[in-house]
Design goal:
This protein is α/β, with parallel strands linked by helices and 300 residues long. It has three domains: 3-84, Arc Repressor Mutant, subunit A, CATH 1.10.10; 88-166 and 275-299, Periplasmic binding protein-like II (D-Maltodextrin-Binding Protein, domain 2); 169-274, Periplasmic binding protein-like II (D-Maltodextrin-Binding Protein, domain 2). Helices cover 44% and strands 21% of the residues. The protein contains eleven helices and eleven strands. Strands 3, 4, 5, 6, 9, 10 and 11 form a seven-stranded mixed beta sheet that branches. Helix 1 (3-15) crosses helix 3 (29-43) and helix 1 (3-15) packs across helix 4 (59-86). The protein is flat, with a radius of gyration of 22 Å. The termini are far apart. The mean pLDDT is 90.
């Protein structure tokens, strides 16, 4: 039995929808259903009444939910205590952020922070969006940085979790240039010669951004999947090597665009603007965190 199965089950009990719970858990609906089934096999009873709409808990499911929620809370509370004891002292921040944000935004942001607050000790934990949210919800970080698009919202209670916009990024197609400095792979491609696509896994946040962008594009792109990864830095290296076209955050390729080693693979109509947000749990009343948040609010 895995903890993530219990978290899946609790999400399903809350949302009463396999599709919404799967989206919240950042997993495909088929994968989510398999994990619920695995949990039921481990328990030895059906936990979900699938004959009703919306799906509801069976008597066994209601009993298991009571125990599961209490068990998870105790586990996470204990983990939070242990991690708090391991944190650095003084003016310190534990930050959860996506890998791209950790590499391309946070270094300069932390440097700017030091000019206002002096020596701030920060521990940055690069992770995916789902795990970042769990860190924030479970009290294992003071700040969480994540991308946001209105059509791809993060499922966080706005009353408990405040956010501020700290930047705007552009999700754009990039290609290695040819000898004439034009894109080696130019959108939209053709049916006879589809462009090799270097893409993200469909459950990653950038994967969902790409699906949204392509789904509403005025012209259908002719693309053939070539490589796939969750990390934009991996995609970037493959594009530089000339392996295909990939959509990348502009912040991650600004130097390459400036020196000409990468060029836009199409006009701005193929771009998607996303916000960069920072989140905090309002129940965390750290004096330094309150002061920092007020500074971010006024300087933004």
């Amino acid at each position: 039995m895995e903890i993530k199965w219990i978290e899946d089950f609790i999400a399903l009990a809350q949302y009463q929808s396999f599709s919404r719970a799967a989206e919240f858990r950042n997993v495909t609906q088929s994968g989510f259903s398999r994990r619920i089934q695995s949990l039921e096999q481990w328990v030895g009873a059906e936990l979900i009444d699938r004959s009703s709409f919306p799906p509801v808990l069976t008597p066994a499911g209601r009993l298991f939910r009571e125990v599961a929620e209490d068990l998870l809370q105790k586990l996470f509370d204990t983990r939070a205590v242990i991690r708090t004891e391991q944190r650095i002292g003084g003016k310190s921040l534990q930050i959860a952020a996506g890998h791209t944000i950790s590499l391309n935004f946070l270094p300069s942001w932390l440097k700017t922070l030091a000019t206002h607050f002096g020596d701030v000790r920060a521990r940055v934990i690069p992770t995916n969006v789902h795990d970042s949210i769990l860190m924030l919800v479970n009290g294992n970080c003071e700040l969480m940085f994540a991308y946001h698009h209105p059509e791809l919202p993060l499922h966080l209670d706005p009353v408990r979790y405040e956010h501020l916009t700290v930047g705007i990024d552009t999700f754009m197609p990039a290609s290695k240039p040819n000898a004439r400095s034009a894109p080696l792979y130019r959108l939209p491609g053709t049916a006879k010669q589809p462009l090799p696509l270097i893409s993200y896994t469909e459950t990653s946040y950038f994967g969902r951004c790409l699906a949204l962008l392509l789904g509403r594009a005025g012209t259908a792109a002719a693309l053939q999947l070539h490589y796939e990864s969750d990390m934009a830095e991996v995609l970037k290296k493959l594009v530089i090597e000339g392996e295909g076209v990939a959509w990348l955050p502009k912040s991650a390729i600004k130097d390459e665009l400036a020196n000409g080693s990468l060029v836009p693979a199409g006009p701005g109509s193929w771009n998607l603007e996303v916000e960069l947000r920072v989140y905090r749990d309002v129940s965390n009343r750290s004096e330094f965190l309150d002061t920092l948040w007020q500074h971010l609010r006024t300087s933004g």
